[in-house]
Amino acid sequence: MFEAEPLLKILRQAEVEFILVGGFAGIVHGSARLTQDLDIVYRRTPENIRRLADVLKSHSPYLRGAPPGLPFLWDEETIRRGLNFTLTTDLGDLDLLGEITGGGAYEDLLPDSRPVAAFGVEFQCLTLDRLIEVKRAAGRPKDLEAISELEALRGEPLP
User: The whole model's pTM is what?
Assistant: First the structure.
């Protein structure tokens, strides 16, 4: 079973600015759904990109699903030139998102996040209402399936 704690700990220790979104954000709000990766929206400032490149470098980041041996250089320039990365690391899978559908970038989501302590770490997490909105906007089958449970956690009647 995938554990979020190691990735969350190293990101916080490196002072990376991020907001937890996706399946683990749902778990923070009480969801019973399992997820196999950590989804975060990261702040795209030069300092934060540097911290992100440095902290992940020693954990073998590689593009998830890419053929083995494909040349991939993980550094600040790669992050600056890209936006969203689906990575595998020796600590688990990480979706590193510069922005998300229906939510935008870190600065757009920050007002709809709150500090939480979960998985042995303190970090920013998307609010339940905003999480439901971005899952609805993403429109993927797995996101649409999760909405019913998240709405129930919010206390809304199921449709």
Answer: 0.93
